[in-house]
C-alpha cells in the first residue's frame, strides 16, 4: 500500500518491509484512537477548571457533557479496535515477523494517520448510515442511474464488468453489485480497506453498530446534543446481494494493479483528483476499458497533492482535463455541471461546505484497438 513512486526502485524484501510497517502504522492509529481523543477532552477539562467559579457556574452541564463525550469515544474506540484486529490481507500483526519499528507500540502514530481514523468514522456515516443518504443520493445516485440507463434491466448485467476505483468504504460498489453487475472496488487506503472489510464481512443485519462521528468536533455546534449524535450502521444489510452477485475488493494502487481491456465500465466518484498526475488516471481508465466501454465520473477537482512539496503533482482545471480525455481517445457523451454535493458534512453544523461537481459519461470507441 505504500506510494507507487517508490516501486521499481526497491528490492522485494525492502518493499515487503515497508508494506508491513505501513500496515502496522494503520493498525496502531486505530488502537491509539481512544488515547488521542481523550487528550482532546482532557484539554477541554483543563480549560474549564481554570475558569473562575462564577464562569463555571454559567455552564452547569459542561462536566456531564464531557463525560458523555468520553462515553461516545469509548464506543468509537471499540469499533476502531475491531478494524485494527482484522487482517484481510494476511499481513502479520505481531510476533517476530514484524520489524520492531513496525509494531504498534513502537511510537505514537503520526497525526496524519490519526486524521484518517477520524475521517473513517465520518465516512462510515456517509456510506453506511441513514444520515448519509442525502450525500449518497447526490453523488452515487447519478452514477447508479447512468449505469442502469446504459445497461437496462433486460440486459445480462451479470456479464457486465464494472470497476470502481477509489471505492472507499465500498457502498457505491456494493450498490453496483446489487443492481446485478459484476463489480469490483479498488482502494489504496488501508484505513478504508480495514473498515470496509469489517462492515461487509463481520455481521449480517442492519443498525447494529453505533458510530459517533461528531464527538471530536468542538466548533460550529448549535447544541451540545448535536456533538453526541449517534448514528447506526449499516442502514442496509451488506449480505443482501443476489445469489449470483460477483462482488470483490482489490487492494492497491489503481495505476499498478490494473492492465489490459477487461472492463465494460469504470465508475469514478470523488476519485480522479486523488491522482498526482491526473493524465495517468485518464490513460489508465482508457487502457482497461474494452472497446465500447463507458467511463462514468462524478466529483470535484480537489487535487490531493496540491500542497505536497515533495512529489510531482499537476493541478489542471476541468476544461483542460476534458481536452485530455478526448485526446486519450474517449468520446464525451454527456456532461452536467455544476452538480452540488457535500462530503462527510454534518447537517447540524453551522459550517457547511459543498462542491460544485462535474458529472460526465465518456465512451471508448467501438473501433478502438483492444
Write the layout of secondary structure elements.
Elements: H1 12-49, H2 53-56, H3 62-85, H4 111-128, H5 133-150, E1 161-165, H6 171-178, E2 182-187, H7 190-201, E3 209-211, H8 224-227, E4 231-233, E5 246-251, H9 254-257, E6 263-269, H10 278-288, E7 289-299, H11 318-327, E8 331-341, E9 355-363
Parallel strand pairs: 1-2, 1-6, 2-5, 6-7
Antiparallel strand pairs: 3-4, 7-9, 8-9
Helix pairs in contact: 1-3, 1-4, 3-7
Q: Which structural class best describes the helix and strand composition?
A: alpha/beta
Q: Which range does the strand content fall in?
A: 15-25%
Query: How helical, in percent, are the residues?
Result: 40-55%
Low-confidence stretches: 1-8, 91-106
Largest sheet: 7 strands, mixed
Rg over C-alpha atoms, rounded to the nearest angstrom: 22 Å
Shape category: globular
Calculate the terminal CA-CA distance, rounded to whole Å.
Answer: 29 Å
Mean pLDDT: 92
Provide a brief overview of the structure:
This protein is 41% helix and 16% strand.
Brief descriptors of the model:
370 residues, alpha/beta, two-stranded antiparallel sheet, 41% helix, 16% strand
Describe this entry's structure for a reader.
The chain is α/β, with parallel strands linked by helices and 370 residues long. It is 41% helix and 16% strand. It contains 11 helices and 9 strands. Strands 5-2-1-6-7-9-8 form a 7-stranded mixed beta sheet, with helices on both faces. The protein has a two-stranded antiparallel ribbon with strand order 3-4. Helix 1 packs antiparallel against helix 3 (62-85), helix 1 crosses helix 4 and helix 3 (62-85) packs across helix 7. It is globular.
